Amino acid sequence: MEMSNFKVYFDLGFEHILDINGYDHILFVLALAAVYLLRDWKKVLILVTAFTIGHSVTLALSTLNYVVIQPEVIEFLIPVTIFITAFANLFKKEKSLKQSGNMQLNYIFALVFGLIHGLGFSNYLKSLLGKNSSIVGELLAFNLGLEVGQIIIVVCFLIISFIFIDLFGMKRRDWVLIISSAIAGIAITLMLETKFW
What we know:
By secondary structure, this protein is mainly α. It contains eight helices and no strands.
């Protein structure tokens, strides 16, 4: 794969995750990151990578037509994953937020729900690839672009949480409740707006 072609697909992945019109994936990443602080950046990096691994698997399988699921179903399931992740955050107590062992559920959400998000990414990627037979390089470049975009989103979010919690003294639990409630509310709206019904 030529470097220029790699850059094209890297940029497409990067722009796709940062596209404000495709904010459903951003909401999911924020729902995952809502319970973490800036000092937890290593854990969040693992979390984002788990999401990337999850969506890379189904992105590849769906793009290669090994897995075919109706787009309407995926459009409904993506906000469901966002809602479940944000809703689970609402039940995390202040004490459990400080104990990393209680955050394992988020890693499971990132990996398993990443599989569903990969199916959403695949519809976009399929339309770009057309009937191109060799897509391994394109898939890799696209996924790397997504990963870098996700990391940027998370870093910006963690900086904002640092400002509110560490500088302004907001309670961590209150921050998680506000962010997660807003995300859950948006997810419900997205579910109701899908053509699934």
